[in-house]
Specification:
Layout: H1 8-18, E1 29-35, E2 38-43, E3 50-51, E4 55-56, H2 58-77, E5 84-92, E6 101-110, E7 114-123, E8 129-138
Antiparallel strand pairs: 1-2, 2-6, 3-4, 5-8, 6-7, 7-8
Length: 143
């Protein structure tokens, strides 16, 4: 297995500089681990994520998934701000618990212009996924 191009600390510094509106100490987002081809990230639980019916909202799970995907891409190709989501499909599998959400992202295929990936979302402490995501990212040409 190859070494990631960026470490957790490097990805955090990049995100804080390029996307301070989304990645900041109050966001509750943390990057737990990166490797070449994937990552594990966490969204700290907050009551603000609960929707009617007592479940964590779909938009919260989609945001965490997209965050995990971007971190996985950065760890594999380096600091490319303009790598963007061009497709994201989510399957909600079961009701998440009122706990932190964990996302584990995996790059299935990394090409020059596209990255095809998947994410499994879990309630902290539970091995059964609450959602499964597939996604494609566009990678801008390198000069």
């Amino acid at each position: 297995m190859s070494t990631p191009v960026m470490t957790v600390e490097e990805v955090e510094r990049f995100l804080a500089a390029e996307f301070p509106q989304a990645f900041h100490p109050q966001s509750g987002l943390t990057i737990e681990k990166v490797w070449f081809g994937g990552c594990r990230v966490r969204q700290a639980y907050s009551d603000k994520f609960i929707r009617p019916g007592g479940t964590i909202s779909g938009p919260t799970m989609m945001m965490l998934s997209d965050f995990a995907l971007y971190v996985a891409v950065l760890a594999a190709i380096g600091p490319v701000a303009l790598a963007v989501t061009i497709n994201l499909n989510i399957n909600f599998l079961r009701k998440p618990e009122r706990r932190d959400l964990i996302a584990e992202a995996k790059i299935l295929k990394l090409g020059k212009r596209l990255a095809v990936m998947e994410v499994n979302l879990f309630s902290d402490g539970n091995e059964e996924p609450v959602a499964h995501v597939t996604s494609t990212y566009s990678i801008p040409p390198r000069d």
